[in-house]
Amino acid sequence: MRFFLAVLLCFASWPAYGSGNPSPVKATIEQQVAVADTSAFTARSFNERQLGEYRRSPAFIYRDNGVYAGQSLWSRFWRWFWGLFEGITSAPVTGNLFKILFWGLGIAGSIYAFLKLIGMDPIQVFTRKPTGIEVPYEESLENIHEISFDDEIERAAGVQNYRLAVRLLYLSSLKYLSDSGMIHWQNDKTNGAYLQELANTDKKEQFSVLTRQFEYIWYGNFPVQPDAFQEIRGAFKHFTGKK
Q1: Nearest Cα to 160, choosing from 192, 182, 128, 138?
Q2: Which residue numbers delimit the Protein-glutamine gamma-glutamyltransferase-like C-terminal domain (predicted)?
């Protein structure tokens, strides 16, 4: 009986160990559901007439022979001029040097124009000093009523000391204003104080110009050329009414 049961168990377990191939495993694929785009869509088209106007407009023609067609010759010249320096100014270091040079030339040109405007030779300002002359009086002890201005002016101009001659012309104008009762002269007064005393508007404007010109020449140590001196002398004569 026991033997019979043992044989039965052997035959019952035979299929489990007799087969060498395992059962295949099926792969599971996750299915994705596509979501339809339901946003509104509006078809757009170009305005052919407007595009044609843009094509014909000079503002949208990016060519050297087209975009500047409406500019004047003066504008084209400056465009060409600045284009010469475009390569130089593009680099940081050389660009800064060029700007310094450009501003320096601009300032020098302004100074040159200003000196020419007030009747002085810009070249002589920095290259030559005026001829010296002995002054027959101390500046701190000047008394405009004790100076023979015509003689002293001729003496200074004779040795080409035009700066001193301009100073004497200015002092003679102060004497003229004092003698006319327009100002009250004092040795310690400033030129600005005399300007404030003038009530005559026309005389005040003229004297203001002469004062400014005198101060640039005398205190600025600027030499004066013969032609410029004659113009300045004429202005002082016109102011004082001399011929």
Answers
A1: 128
A2: 170-235
